[in-house]
Amino acid sequence: MQLPPKVTSRAFERLTEIGAGAEGKALRVAVEGGGCSGFQYDISLDEPAADDLVLAEGDQKVVVDPVSLPFLAGAVIDFTDELIGARFVIDNPNATSSCGCGTSFSI
User: Fold this and answer.
1) How far, in Å, CA of 33 to CA of 81, rounded?
2) Phi and psi at residue 9, in whole multiples of 5°?
3) 3 exposed, middle or buried (CB, 10 Å; 0-12, 13-18, 19+)?
4) Which PROSITE patterns match (predicted)?
């Protein structure tokens, strides 16, 4: 059995700040082919689908589609606000390498 991804309290706090749950939106974290390392993350605000894995805290939700789920098993979804910018980040134990920007990876 695969471990589901985890979402940090900072990520849920950021979703609250931007009002995602109040609009009925969830943070969608998906994996697509492409990027400089073979796969890339697609992070967006979206409506949850019936077959999504839903990770929730209060009215804030993070969703992962069934195809992306194996690529994100055991990953940690976080939010960082640094000098270079604020963004959602993924610490993925399945990635064997990643690009410098952190948006693409290989397995």
Assistant:
1) 27
2) -65, -30
3) exposed
4) HESB
Average pLDDT over residues 16-45: 86
Backbone angles phi and psi of 72, in degrees to 5: -110, 10
How long, in residues, is the chain? 107
3-class SS of residue 22: helix
The per-residue pLDDT for range 59-78, each reduced to its tens digit, is 999 999 999 999 999 999 99
In the predicted structure, residue 46 carries a pLDDT above the cut 70: yes
CA distance 23 to 40: 27
* pTM listed for this prediction: 0.85
The domains of the chain, with CATH numbers, are: 6-96 (2.60.300.12)
Q: Please spell the DSSP secondary structure of 38-55, one letter per residue.
A: SEEEEEEEEPPPTTSEEE
Rounded to the nearest 5°, which phi and psi values hold at 30? Answer: -130, 160
The CA-based angle 94-81-56, given to 5 degrees, is 60
